[in-house]
Amino acid sequence: MYDVCIIGAGVTGCAIARELSRYRVSVCVVERCEDVCCGTSKANSAIVHAGYDAANGSLMAQLNVKGNAMMEALSRELDFPFSRNGSLVTCLREADIPGLETLLERGIKNGVTGLRILSREEAHALEPNLSDAVAAALYAPTGGIVCPFLLTIALAENAAVNGVTFRFDTAVTAVRRENGQYILNTRQGQIKSRFVVNAAGVYADVFHNMVSEDKIRITPRRGEYCLLDRTAGGHVRYTIFTLPTERGKGVLVTPTVHGNLLAGPTAADIADKEGTNTTRGGLNEVMEKAAQVVRDIPFRQTITSFSGLRAHEDGHDFIIGELTDAPGFIDAAGIESPGLTAAPAVGVMVADLLRERLCLQKNDSFQAERRGILRPADLSVEEQSELIRRNPAYGTIVCRCESVTEGEIIDAIRRPVGARSLDGVKRRTRAGMGRCQSGFCSPRVMEILARELDIPTEAVTKSGGGSHIVVNRTGKGGQEGTAL
């Protein structure tokens, strides 16, 4: 029995959990996957939006600007990478400059500071690799970039240290209210809770509609991306957008906090809530549209492509609040872009609501700070030598592309809400995110996972569930062996 059960361990659910851990309250986060950050939060543009795009007065606009303002201090407190690199919204025709002026006016009303429209010459002086076709740009100095994996993981780790329980591989199959409390049927048994927070991403409508007569609809909106090697990371300095349309902010080109270059996304509404496949047509669209605003993008340096799903709600605004016909059930639904930016503010908003409803008292032992995984590559030669002397595992390179050591991987596994799969290690340490995309390091990472988790190698998965990499087979002479 919990005071609050949060459905979904994406960035929204983890932000809410972390804010609730400031109080004396029993909180459980249930997640159908094997780790945090396995849905929309792991596959997005990694952008901290300035806040000029959302409609004036909308919840989306308010929480975007608040979340943006919180991100820098939060990154220092929880030790995740964030850079306020600024952004440019470009237009390709002088006839479209009024569209930039509309965004400027909207942004000012939303409370965004520092906005100004740049002429063709000013825009090209600021970003030399803009295409010759760019006629003008809206400059937003408060725009930024972040690592969505490490943000979500940092929030979850800090919440866990402060008393929040996380239950993975725990898909919720039904929710009902009974005798003033909620009963959640899951694949791991029943969970009872006084309050439920619905932070289930593209599945948020499913749970909302189980308890409310006022139905909502979430449409998965697939966006496809190309990720380029670090050799291309300096091609642009700012995040480069095109004028937004009714289907979103369009294809962007941006550096990442890890030094790569990212282009995307497309925007295709689909029916499949698991439809994260990429398509030839979608990736072609990314490359063609990106090339319209940024010249000479070295797409030959693409090391991987991926797609993610945005939780698009019909009203195109965040749905946050307690349901009138289901007391104790709180929605955090329709959290599409700029949901990553808004997540810290969403966490505060939902936690404040629950603080009032539950009359919560402060948790006097709350630990606000969290330190991330120590990277020897960030240390001086002298510091590296001392670290390796104390712990030789930090002297063994496992992932050559990203210079990840065995010590970092062990830390990622042993930390609160630690890694349990190859992808879990990848998200925390970047082992496998480089040019070879796990081709060299995955066997060694699997050995470390098996040893640390005390499981056979056959039980190690790529991303939980049935994603096993080693399978049993019968070798020569009828003896059992294993094969990759």
Keywords:
alpha+beta, 484 residues, globular, disordered C terminus, five-stranded antiparallel β-sheet
What can you tell me about this protein's structure?
With 484 residues, the chain is α+β, with helices and mostly antiparallel strands. It is built from twelve helices and 24 strands. The strands form six sheets. Strands 1, 2, 9, 10, 11, 12, 19 and 20 form an eight-stranded mixed beta sheet that branches. Strands 13, 15, 16, 17 and 18 form a five-stranded antiparallel beta sheet that branches. Strands 6-7-5-14 form a four-stranded mixed beta sheet. α2 crosses α8 and α10 packs across α12. The longest helix has 20 residues. The C terminus is likely disordered.
Q: What is the helix fraction of residues, given as a range?
A: 25-40%
Structural class: alpha+beta
Distance between the termini: 43 Å
Number of helices: 12
Give the SSE map:
Blueprint: E1 2-7, H1 11-20, E2 27-30, E3 47-48, H2 59-78, E4 82-83, E5 87-91, H3 97-110, E6 116-119, H4 120-126, E7 136-140, E8 144-146, H5 148-161, E9 165-167, E10 172-178, E11 181-186, E12 189-198, H6 204-211, E13 218-228, E14 239-242, E15 252-255, E16 261-264, E17 268-269, H7 280-293, E18 302-313, E19 319-323, E20 326-333, H8 339-358, H9 381-390, E21 397-399, E22 404-405, H10 406-414, H11 422-429, H12 442-453, E23 471-474, E24 480-483
Parallel strand pairs: 1-2, 1-12, 2-9, 5-14, 12-20
Antiparallel strand pairs: 3-8, 4-8, 5-7, 6-7, 10-11, 11-12, 13-16, 13-17, 13-18, 15-16, 19-20, 21-22, 23-24
Helix pairs in contact: 1-5, 1-8, 2-8, 10-11, 10-12
